[in-house]
């Protein structure tokens, strides 16, 4: 498969719009829902992130994107182990690391394997009785760039599940990441938003539940504010992000709607940005938002575009 220019722009958008949304939401995190008339802009984040600096959402996505850009397969256990090692190094002095993610990474001294990481995530889930935070969905945006060619849906679902379960074991995480990644893939290839058609990729016993969640977010008039309570839960973050896109007139509108939803604003906007960017493309983002965006590991917007291009060239198409 050779990507057309619009398809390549949409692949770039899946990464770039997510980073922009993450940075936009940083200063509003844990705040109340905002009115539609409230301006949304970059500012100093709640955890001290600078103006235009992305947070943990995009930082954790970067080793995934870099692996794809190097031509690596996300279905390879050794590649997944290297991603976890990169996360562990990042977490040592990161401004903010999700509680569940930090607990898993802290248990991984010494050599890391995919099985060890998944085992640590499973242990955290067993002790707490749940592990449904939104920390896996927030970083999943780049995954689809490695699986854009015909017939790669099953490998994409496998990669999305395995990467989610490196830190978040609960089925809700895997299901949300599979649906989101397949929706990003579909949007890059076609320019269309279509989440419902991806439900067949889930285990049959869980499809009706996710159909209900998805249709609720797609309902006319739905807004991320409707899902702001407990949007640290992956299901509510999924719904808030989808509602942000569904009711939007543009990529920027989707990001602003996500931020105005309140509470976990950076994460919901990062999630929304990955799919909104796949629908609308990177060129839909104005320079005033793209130019300031930056973050770990010392990357900027132009670097995200270059990495996205390499990922598509070496793995996605």
Automatic annotation (TrEMBL):
A Pfam family reported for this protein in Swiss-Prot or TrEMBL: ADP_ribosyl_GH
One term of GO molecular function: hydrolase activity
Write the record's keywords in alphabetical order, separated by commas.
Hydrolase, Magnesium, Metal-binding
Coiled-coil stretches noted in the UniProt entry, renumbered to this chain:
none
Q: List the SUPFAM superfamilies hit by this protein, alphabetically.
A: ADP-ribosylglycohydrolase
Query: Does Lyase count among this protein's keywords?
Result: no
Annotated residues for binding of Mg(2+): 55-57, 264, 266-267
User: Is Magnesium included in the keywords of this UniProt record?
Assistant: yes
Q: Which cofactor does it need?
A: Mg(2+)
Q: How is the cofactor bound?
A: Binds 2 magnesium ions per subunit.
| Family (UniProt) | Belongs to the ADP-ribosylglycohydrolase family.
Which PANTHER family does the record cross-reference, listed alphabetically? ADP-RIBOSYLGLYCOHYDROLASE (PTHR16222), ADP-RIBOSYLHYDROLASE ARH3 (PTHR16222:SF24)
Q: What is this protein called?
A: ADP-ribosylglycohydrolase family protein
């Amino acid at each position: 498969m050779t990507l057309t220019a619009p398809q390549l722009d949409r692949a770039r958008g899946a990464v770039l719009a997510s980073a922009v949304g993450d940075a936009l939401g940083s200063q509003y995190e844990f705040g109340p829902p905002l009115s539609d008339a409230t301006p949304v802009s970059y500012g100093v984040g709640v955890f001290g992130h600078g103006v235009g600096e992305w947070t943990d959402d995009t930082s954790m996505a970067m080793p995934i994107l870099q692996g794809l850009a190097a031509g690596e397969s996300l279905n390879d256990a050794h590649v997944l182990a290297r991603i976890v090692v990169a996360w562990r190094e990042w977490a040592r002095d990161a401004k903010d690391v999700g509680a569940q993610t930090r607990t898993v990474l802290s248990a991984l001294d010494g050599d890391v394997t995919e099985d060890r990481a998944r085992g640590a995530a499973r242990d955290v889930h067993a002790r707490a009785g749940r592990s449904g935070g939104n920390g896996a969905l927030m970083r999943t945006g780049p995954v689809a760039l490695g699986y854009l060619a015909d017939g790669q849906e099953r490998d994409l679902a496998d990669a999305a599940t395995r990467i989610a379960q490196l830190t978040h074991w609960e089925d809700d995480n895997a299901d949300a990441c599979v649906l989101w990644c397949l929706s990003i893939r579909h949007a890059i290839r076609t320019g269309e938003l279509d989440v419902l058609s991806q439900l067949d990729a889930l285990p049959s016993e869980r499809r009706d539940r996710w159909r209900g969640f998805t249709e609720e977010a797609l309902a006319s008039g739905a807004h991320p504010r409707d899902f702001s309570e407990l949007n640290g839960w992956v299901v509510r973050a999924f719904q808030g992000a989808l509602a942000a896109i569904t009711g939007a007139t543009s990529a920027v509108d989707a990001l602003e709607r996500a931020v105005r939803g309140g509470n976990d604003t950076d994460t919901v906007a990062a999630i929304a940005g990955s799919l909104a960017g796949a629908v609308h493309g990177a060129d839909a983002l104005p320079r005033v938002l793209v130019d300031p965006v930056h973050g770990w590991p010392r990357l900027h917007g132009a670097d995200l575009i270059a990495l996205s291009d390499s990922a598509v060239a070496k793995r996605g198409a």
